[in-house]
Design a protein that fits this description.
Layout: H1 23-39, H2 44-51, H3 57-76, E1 84-85, H4 87-97, H5 103-115, E2 117-118, H6 127-134, H7 138-150, E3 153-155, E4 161-163, E5 166-169, H8 170-176, H9 182-194, E6 198-201, E7 220-225, H10 227-235, H11 243-246, E8 255-256
Antiparallel strand pairs: 1-2, 3-4, 3-8, 5-7, 6-7
Helix pairs in contact: 1-3, 3-5, 4-5
Length: 262
């Protein structure tokens, strides 16, 4: 910090160690600071106090990337200059999201930050999704992100959106999401079920040798993301639309074909 900038904000807590960050990272972090200051000015000083001296270069870089992605999403919607976010939400998203080192997970945090921005900055409804996303593994994020995008959705008679339960080959499922062994698959799906993001039935036997015996020659998973997962997915894409609106199901009851049509 120079003498010409005595009052500049240190949102991400990186000024005390500025010389230790390379030029590219420092430029990214500065851009993130400007964006975060713009969407949440009333709490800017509090951010500095909260994060100063606690955010490592590693986490500061992740937080900056999340902010950068969020700003891009808002710019694409033409809303980057005229929105605000609730201080509690921005603090939570930066605090939790800065631990994410996988690009696909950072993208989800960025979408959540973007969808937290509204005209008056008073909406804190994304807090429930911050809590959910902070408990998900990178593999869990990939599962929910891809299934919510590709699986067939429909509007129920009561007007709520739901995904259509589908059969999956266990081998194909594991290969698609980089899962190395059956116990990991079981853990991931059980955890997503505990978070109420996935409904699934899978074989109780986890020993592949047992599958060679009838009637388990072709073990299958059967399940789908829950309505809550669909809400999470939409918010993590940076949208404040309802899932029915996002997937093009507004109007009459019906199904959306697999794959996001937006």
């Amino acid at each position: 910090m120079t003498d010409k900038e005595p009052h500049s904000l240190d949102i991400l807590g990186i000024k005390p160690v500025g010389d230790a960050i390379n030029t590219a990272v420092e430029a990214t972090v500065k851009g993130a600071e400007a964006f975060l200051s713009r969407i949440c000015l009333p709490a800017a000083e509090e951010f500095g106090l909260l994060l100063r001296d606690r955010v490592s270069h590693w986490r500061a870089n992740h937080a900056a990337r999340i902010a950068e992605k969020a700003e891009k999403l808002l710019t694409e919607k033409g809303a980057a200059e005229n929105v605000r976010a609730h201080p509690r939400l921005v603090t939570s998203i930066i605090e939790q999201g800065s631990w994410a080192d996988k690009d696909e997970v950072q993208a989800m945090w960025a979408g959540l930050l973007a969808s937290s921005c509204t005209e008056d900055g008073a909406d804190d409804s994304n807090l429930m999704f911050v809590n959910l996303l902070s408990q998900m593994t990178a593999t869990g994020v990939r599962i929910i992100d891809r299934l919510c995008d590709e699986i067939t959705k429909e509007v129920s008679p009561g007007g709520t959106i739901r995904a259509e339960a589908t059969y999956f080959s266990i081998d194909n499922f594991m290969e698609a999401f980089g899962i190395k062994e059956l116990h990991q698959l079981h853990r991931e799906l059980e955890h997503l079920s505990a978070l109420r993001l996935m409904w699934v039935e899978m074989p109780e036997v986890l020993d592949p040798k047992a599958w060679e015996k009838a009637p388990m020659k072709q073990p299958m998973l059967y399940g789908c993301p829950t309505p809550l997962a669909l809400y999470l997915y939409v918010r993590c894409k940076g949208s404040n639309d309802s899932p029915a609106e996002y997937f093009g199901l507004i109007g009459e009851q019906g199904k959306a074909p697999s794959g996001n049509q937006n």
